[in-house]
Each structure stands twice: as structure tokens, then as C-alpha cells.
């Protein structure tokens, strides 16, 4: 009996009890009715009606209970039938499960057998691979052993050769020792002979001196004094000539040495050239983007210029806008902001402020990274963080087409090479040259010369007085007093003044060369003109028949004077007039 049958039996028993109770109540009621008073009594009649109604209700309840019992019996029968069906299904399920289990066991046996076969095959492959690997390792070990044996043989041969050479060297030393012994004996004999000869010479010299004193009528001391006076006069004249020659050679050698140092420093350092511009060009994906940049009634462009401080120029140039600003860092932040806005597509005042903050942080990171790279390239490790930030701003600063940060790196390298050639303090001179233009980072914000501004910054952030003086004196605002200042000036001139370093200097350099040649070529008697050494020397070839030696000197002076009056140039220009005379004769 399952739980459902038990519940159903309990319900049936409950219903039977209810029916029995109802029957007992009805019997009790009937007895009361038989023993009741007369029907004529109204109370009796009312009580009788009430009892009859109760009896009718009990009969109705009994009928309902009977019908419920019938329903419960039918439900019990159905439940028994379902239980039988469930038992049959359970039996079938057990049979199916038993069959599936048998199939699974058979399939598991098959899989296990295949796995055993696959494992055996894999093991065979592994054994084969291990055998091959072992053979290769054996071959490698054999080759290594052969190489080691050959190396041992070579070493043994070298040792034998070294022993042979050592034996020969010992024999040579023994021969040399014998030769030295013989030479010592010969030298002793020669020394004794020389001593005897010196004694004879001394006696002859004394006799000759006495004879000279008798003939000259002078004593040896008087003759010595007279001779010394003559030799002293001659020595003074020769010394004066020698000093003059030494000074001339030293001057020529110093100029040549300085020229070699400068040329070597310039040749060993070469940097890129950057075109200077006060505007940046941003290319757009289409001309319709210009309207979105301007915004409704120009609100976007006004917000952009107000936030970034950069003037935005939108003209008829197809698919491009211009950004103009005197501060290169601010211009780069504005360009990056506009580029991000164009890529994003959402352009409105609030978005402009958000993107501007991101662009400013990105440019600051780029500047800081550029300054660190420059410091690493130059070899400077200890420097104030504020100076690092200011150096990073020079990444976007140019001077006559030359990037200022790269100019500082190039100047430091040139100064370091010069200092190494002159055996000076290389780190201090490189530091002075690297920081000499630091004031250009604040020329847009602070009034005054960038040399003085840079010196104040260096002094503020703890740089040494030698470095500060080199910075403030590199443009002669302050007279240079130290070798660091002089070398900083020289390296700055080498980096900025070499041809091609600055766009404006290159144009002026070409024009200066042309004008120098024109000035010299315009004189009478000039045949050819050559401008040499980057315009620092000009050689004028004249016709020997038209210009004599005095005329050549006058021509050189006139050309030099006209160059001084008409041209502006660094350093000095040497004018050399070459007059060549050729005489030809024929021997018959």
C-alpha cells in the first residue's frame, strides 16, 4: 500500500464516521419527536419544523457523503489502475535501464580497448622519438667530443710550439749574455785606453793654454770673459729669433688645432632640421565637418577659442582648417583637441572642455617624455623636476626652423666633444650647453632676454654658478668669464650657424656667398673668384699682367673693406689675392 492509498482510506473512514454520526443525530431527533407534546402547541410545531429541516439537511449531507464515497472509490480504483500502470512502466524502465547499462558496458569495453591500442601506438611513437632524440644527442656528443679532442690537439700543438720558442729564446739569451760579457771586457779595455788618452790630452791642453796666454798676452780668465760676452750676445739674438718662430708656430698651431676641434665636433654631430611655423593644419574627413566645428551661430568655434586660446581659421581650403597661436604648446594642445573632436563627432561646448583637458594632459606627458629622452641622450641624471617640465615644452618650440630641444641636445654633444679634446670638465660643460636656451620656454610669458630668464631659472632651481654664468653669457648680455661660458658660446654657434641648420641662415648663407663673389669679381683685373670654408675665406685670382704686387695688396684691402661695409656675417672673412707669373723659354 502506497501513500496515496493510505490517504484515500483515511478519507473514506472519516466520511463513514461523519455519516454514522449524522444517523445517530437523526435517530435521537426522531425519539424526541415521538416523545414531544401535542401538535397543537405552537412551540412544538416550530421545534418540529426546525427538527425536520435539520433532518432534511442531514439526509442531504448523507447523500453528499455517499456520493463523495462513491467518487473516492472511483478515484481509488483509478489510482490503483495508475499504480499498476506505474509499476508496469517502472518494470519496463528497469528493463530499459538494464539494457542501456549493458550497452554502455559493451561500449566502454570497446572504448577501453581502443584506448589501450592508441596508448600502445603513442607509446611506440614516443619510444621511436626518444630513440631518434637519443641518436641525435649521441651524434651531437660525438661531434662535441671530436671537436674537444681536436681542440686538445691544437692546444698541445700550441704548447709544443711555445716550448720550442721558449727554448730558442733561452738560447738567444745565452748567446746575448756571452756577447755582453765579451763587450764588457772590450769596453773595459777601451775605458783604460781612453783614460790614458784623456790624461795626454789634458797635458797637451795645458801646454797649449800656456802657449796661447804667452802669445795673446791675456790670461785664461780674461779670455773666458771676452768669449762669454760674445757668445751671450749671439745667444740673445738667436733666442729672440727662436722665440719669434715659436710664437708664430704656436699661433698657427693653435688656430689649426681649434679649427680641427670645431670641425671634428660638427662632423660628429648631425641632427634633423624642423620647419618653423606659427600655424598648424588639421585635415578633415569632409567639408561638412567645418559646419559642425562652427556650430549653431558660431557657438562651437567661440567655445573652442575661449577654452584653448588658439585662433581657428576656417577658409576655402578644401578639407582643412588652420590653428594659429604664438605659443607652440598651446597650439599643439588645440590641434590635438580639435583632432579628437573630429574623430569623435560630438562637438559642443561641454564636450570641447572635456576633450581639452584630456589633450592637455596628453601633451604634458609627451613633453615630459621628450625631456626625459633628451636628458638620457645627453647623459644628465640629476636635475630639478621643474626644469624637466620646462625642457619638455621646448619640444614644440622652434627657432628659425630649428627645433630648440634638438638644438640643445646637439649643442651639448658639440660642447662635450670640445671639452674632451681640451681635457676639461665634460659633465659641467655639457650641462651648461644643454641648459643655455631653457629661458625660451618662458619667453611667451616673461619679459626679457631668454638668456637672463634661463639664468634666473637655473639659479632658482639649484644649478651651479658656472652653469648659471654660461647661460646668461651665451649671447654676451653678460661678458663671459669662464671656460664653460666660452665653450657654450662656441657650441651654440656651431649648432645654429652651420649651413642647413636653420632655414633663414641657409638662405642668408647662400646670398652672402653670392654677394662676396660679386664684390670681388667686380674689381678690375680679377679673373676668377672662389668662396671657400663656408664663406669665411675668399680667394681672388688676378691677371698678372694687369695687377702687380702692390695692386694685389690694394685689391685685397678694397675687397675686405667693401665686404665689411655691405655684409653682416659671423666671425671674420679672409681675402687672399693670388697673382701668378709664368715665364716660358724654349731650349734649342
Automatic annotation (TrEMBL):
EC top class named in words: hydrolase
Any Pfam family the entry gives: HD
Keyword vocabulary terms for this entry: Coiled coil, Endonuclease, Hydrolase, Nuclease, RNA-binding
InterPro entries: HD/PDEase_dom (IPR003607), HD_domain (IPR006674), HDIG_dom (IPR006675), KH_dom (IPR004087), KH_dom_type_1 (IPR004088), KH_dom_type_1_sf (IPR036612), Ribonuclease_Y (IPR017705), RNase_Y_N (IPR022711)
CDD domains, A to Z: HDc, KH-I_RNaseY
Domain HD positions: 404-497
Coiled coil: 69-114, 187-221
GO terms, molecular function: hydrolase activity; RNA binding; RNA endonuclease activity
PROSITE patterns: HD (PS51831), KH_TYPE_1 (PS50084)
Key word Kinase present: no
The protein's Enzyme Commission number: 3.1.-.-
HAMAP family in the record: RNase_Y (MF_00335)
Record protein name field: Ribonuclease Y
Amino acid at each position: 500500500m502506497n501513500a496515496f492509498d493510505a490517504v484515500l482510506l483515511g478519507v473514506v473512514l472519516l466520511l463513514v464516521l461523519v455519516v454514522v454520526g449524522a444517523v445517530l443525530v437523526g435517530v435521537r431527533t426522531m425519539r424526541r419527536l415521538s416523545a414531544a407534546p401535542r401538535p397543537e402547541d405552537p412551540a412544538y410545531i416550530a421545534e418540529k419544523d426546525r427538527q425536520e429541516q435539520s433532518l432534511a439537511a442531514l439526509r442531504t449531507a448523507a447523500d453528499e457523503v455517499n456520493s463523495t464515497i462513491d467518487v473516492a472509490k472511483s478515484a481509488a480504483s483509478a489510482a490503483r489502475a495508475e499504480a499498476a500502470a506505474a509499476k508496469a512502466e517502472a518494470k519496463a524502465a528497469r528493463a530499459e535501464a538494464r539494457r542501456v547499462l549493458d550497452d554502455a558496458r559493451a561500449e566502454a569495453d570497446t572504448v577501453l580497448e581502443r584506448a589501450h591500442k592508441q596508448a600502445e601506438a603513442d607509446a611506440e611513437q614516443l619510444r621511436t622519438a626518444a630513440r631518434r632524440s637519443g641518436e641525435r644527442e649521441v651524434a651531437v656528443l660525438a661531434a662535441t667530443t671530436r671537436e674537444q679532442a681536436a681542440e686538445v690537439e691544437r692546444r698541445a700543438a700550441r704548447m709544443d710550439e711555445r716550448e720550442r720558442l721558449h727554448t730558442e729564446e733561452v738560447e738567444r739569451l745565452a748567446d746575448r749574455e756571452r756577447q755582453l760579457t765579451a763587450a764588457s771586457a772590450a769596453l773595459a779595455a777601451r775605458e783604460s785606453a781612453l783614460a790614458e788618452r784623456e790624461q795626454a790630452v789634458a797635458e797637451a791642453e795645458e801646454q797649449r793654454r800656456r802657449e796661447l796666454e804667452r802669445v795673446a798676452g791675456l790670461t785664461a780668465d780674461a779670455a773666458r770673459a771676452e768669449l762669454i760676452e760674445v757668445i751671450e750676445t749671439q745667444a740673445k739674438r738667436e733666442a729672440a729669433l727662436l722665440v719669434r718662430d715659436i710664437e708664430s708656430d704656436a699661433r698657427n698651431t693653435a688656430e689649426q688645432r681649434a679649427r680641427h676641434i670645431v670641425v671634428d665636433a660638427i662632423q660628429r654631430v648631425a641632427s634633423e632640421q624642423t620647419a618653423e611655423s606659427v600655424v598648424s593644419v588639421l585635415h578633415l574627413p569632409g567639408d561638412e565637418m567645418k559646419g559642425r566645428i562652427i556650430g549653431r551661430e558660431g557657438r562651437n568655434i567661440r567655445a573652442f577659442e575661449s577654452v584653448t586660446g588658439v585662433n581657428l581659421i576656417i577658409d576655402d581650403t578644401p578639407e582643412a582648417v588652420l590653428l594659429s597661436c604664438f605659443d607652440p604648446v598651446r597650439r599643439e594642445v588645440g590641434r590635438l583637441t580639435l583632432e579628437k573632436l573630429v574623430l569623435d563627432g560630438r562637438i559642443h561646448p561641454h564636450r570641447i572642455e572635456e576633450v581639452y583637458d584630456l589633450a592637455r594632459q596628453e601633451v604634458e606627458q609627451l613633453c615630459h617624455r621628450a625631456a626625459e629622452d633628451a636628458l638620457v641622450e645627453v647623459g644628465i641624471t640629476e636635475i630639478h623636476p621643474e626644469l624637466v617640465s620646462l625642457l619638455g615644452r621646448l619640444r614644440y618650440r622652434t627657432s628659425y626652423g630649428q627645433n630648440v630641444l634638438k638644438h640643445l641636445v646637439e649643442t651639448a654633444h658639440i660642447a662635450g666633444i670640445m671639452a674632451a679634446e681640451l681635457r676639461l670638465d665634460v659633465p659641467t660643460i655639457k650641462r651648461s650647453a644643454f641648459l643655455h636656451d631653457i629661458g625660451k620656454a618662458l619667453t611667451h610669458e616673461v619679459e626679457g632676454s631668454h638668456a637672463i630668464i634661463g639664468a634666473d631659472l637655473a639659479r632658482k632651481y639649484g644649478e651651479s654658478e658656472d652653469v648659471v654664468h654660461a647661460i646668461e653669457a651665451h649671447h654676451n648680455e653678460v661678458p663671459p668669464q669662464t671656460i664653460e661660458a666660452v665653450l657654450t658660446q662656441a657650441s651654440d654657434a656651431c649648432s645654429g650657424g652651420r649651413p642647413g641648420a636653420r632655414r633663414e641662415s641657409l638662405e642668408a648663407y647662400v646670398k652672402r656667398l653670392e654677394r662676396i663673389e660679386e664684390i670681388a669679381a667686380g674689381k678690375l683685373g680679377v679673373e676668377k673668384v672662389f668662396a671657400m670654408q663656408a664663406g669665411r675665406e675668399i680667394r681672388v685670382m688676378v691677371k698678372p699682367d694687369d695687377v702687380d704686387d702692390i695692386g694685389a695688396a690694394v685689391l685685397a684691402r678694397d675687397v675686405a673693406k667693401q665686404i665689411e661695409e655691405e655684409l653682416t656675417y659671423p666671425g671674420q672673412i679672409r681675402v687672399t689675392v693670388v697673382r701668378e707669373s709664368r715665364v716660358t723659354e724654349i731650349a734649342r
